[in-house]
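Reply to dn_fold:

You asked what the input looked like. This is it:
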Amino acid sequence: MYEEIIINCFRYLGFTSLYDIKILTLQEYLLRMKAYRLQQVDKEYDMHLQAWHNHRVTWTKEQGNKQVPVYRTFKEFFDYEKRLKEVLGPSNTKLTPKMRNLAKIASRVNSGKEV
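and this is what came back:
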């Protein structure tokens, strides 16, 4: 089991020092491995999404007697500027009272004051 943990740390988690692995707690190791597995799922999702878009970009529709592309321009397929505005626009995140309280506690801890 211990050897498997060391190998996993080198192989999957980017460790380069045996010392860093030896001071790793079991809880941290398990969390890092879970995060790694979730990253792999995210990569699989991205690959499948890419494959879907590759198929989608070739869609056609019938216009008269011929087939024409559904998307005539890249911008019709993906509007980069619009998407940037959506992401960079005003934040819709509302701070809950619990989030405000946690932020105050974190601020006190970071400033060295007692909580």
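The longest helix spans residues 26-56.
Hope that clears it up.
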